[in-house]
Amino acid sequence: MNSEKSLPEEWRRLVEEAMESTITKEEFKAFLIEVGQQKGITSA
């Protein structure tokens, strides 16, 4: 399953904002995991 094409618009905006910011990939991954847990989404 290609997760990029199935991302909701909200997640696309988060990704775009992250790419424009200065956070590292590790910080972004941790952020996604945190947000995912808050929304009840499980991620690998």
From TrEMBL:
Q: Domain of life here?
A: Bacteria
According to its UniProt entry, the protein's GO biological process terms are: regulation of DNA-templated transcription
Source organism per entry reads Guptibacillus hwajinpoensis
What name goes with this protein?
Answer: DNA-binding anti-repressor SinI
- Keyword DNA-binding appears in the UniProt entry: yes
Family annotation (Pfam families): SinI
Could you tell me which residue ranges the Sin domain spans?
A: 1-36
Annotated GO MF terms: DNA binding; protein dimerization activity
Q: What's in the keyword line of the UniProt record?
A: DNA-binding
Give the matching PROSITE patterns: SIN
